[in-house]
Amino acid sequence: MSSAQLIDGKSMAQDVKRELASRIKRLESEAGVRPGLAVILVGDDPASEVYVRGKIRDCRDVGIRSEWIRLPDSNPEEDLLRQIDRLNEDPRFHGILVQLPLPRHISAERVIHRIRPEKDVDGFHPINVGKMVIGQEAFLPCTPYGIMEMLRRSGISVAGKHAVVVGRSNIVGKPVSILLQQADATVTLCHSKTRDLAAHTRRADILVVAVGKARVIGPEHVKPGAVVIDVGINRTEEGRLTGDVDFEAVRSIASHITPVPGGVGPMTRAMLLVNTVRAAERTAGIGQG
Ligand SMILES: Nc1nc(=O)c2c([nH]1)NC[C@@H]1CN(c3ccc(C(=O)N[C@@H](CCC(=O)O)C(=O)O)cc3)C=[N+]21
Ligand SMILES: [Mg+2]
């Protein structure tokens, strides 16, 4: 039986990091600027802790200054907003990331609004979302940006293809559907109320799945030769990570497929570094935009 080509996000992320090294050197030599990222974690959720530790390690690997600001779970929203105000004014930090989810007493919306759009390396601020939608230069959200970069680096053309996105979250499904459309795909956006999901997904040349539920996509959902991008990160009962796609069954049908782990996740992290370096370049007047 034939088997899909793996889209290796881990090795692509290493390539992205290598490419950033020269941009970081240029920032230093031409502008005396070292890019900086501040990461705020509220509370002690173990999964968030692991993610933030990974982001800090990524920064160290490529030479980005980073600061990890830990706040207790009970931290008042007003205090978090003041920390953001301080970082907005601190020229050492070109990017600010507030790890989500936040404790229930804190409004993610107010927090995201408070970050200066020029430092919003997550691409979550409405200014950046709006610019993205109308095709202006903006910070792109890291997962959708990473997906587009994985397609490009795999030599997969998007123009004229039928792309089907499953899931309509503000951080993945909605923005990736817009980026695919801007790359000249014909886009169908499916979600929890979609009737006959398989009838839609079976028409996809490029299928992006961002639902957050293991095995929502099986072989019956996939057209032979399709490109399958799995954004899901789910934990099995045995504690293994698994995506939203039944990987073993789908890999014999698809032409390309992303693994979990080692697919979209590492590229999401890499694009955060790209956005941070871009933010620093902008303040230094280097590069396009
Ligand atoms: N403000 C904010 N921005 C985010 O971008 C953000 C966030 N909050 N909250 C949580 C989600 C989740 N997220 C991941 C990124 C990389 C991996 C990743 O690298 N995953 C590895 C596996 C990691 C592991 O072993 O747990 C992989 O798929 O190979 C996972 C999850 C970013 N998020
Ligand atoms: Mg949904």
Automatic annotation (TrEMBL):
Pfam families: THF_DHG_CYH, THF_DHG_CYH_C. PROSITE patterns: THF_DHG_CYH_1. GO terms for biological process: L-histidine biosynthetic process; methionine biosynthetic process; purine nucleotide biosynthetic process; tetrahydrofolate interconversion. Keywords: Amino-acid biosynthesis, Histidine biosynthesis, Hydrolase, Methionine biosynthesis, Multifunctional enzyme, NADP, One-carbon metabolism, Oxidoreductase, Purine biosynthesis. Pathway: One-carbon metabolism; tetrahydrofolate interconversion. Its EC number is 1.5.1.5, 3.5.4.9. One of its GO terms (molecular function) is methenyltetrahydrofolate cyclohydrolase activity. Residues 7-122 form the Tetrahydrofolate dehydrogenase/cyclohydrolase catalytic domain. NADP(+) binds at residues 167-169, 233. It catalyses: (6R)-5,10-methylene-5,6,7,8-tetrahydrofolate + NADP(+) = (6R)-5,10-methenyltetrahydrofolate + NADPH; (6R)-5,10-methenyltetrahydrofolate + H2O = (6R)-10-formyltetrahydrofolate + H(+). Residues 141-283 form the Tetrahydrofolate dehydrogenase/cyclohydrolase NAD(P)-binding domain. Homodimer. Catalyzes the oxidation of 5,10-methylenetetrahydrofolate to 5,10-methenyltetrahydrofolate and then the hydrolysis of 5,10-methenyltetrahydrofolate to 10-formyltetrahydrofolate. HAMAP family: THF_DHG_CYH. This is Bifunctional protein FolD. The gene is folD.
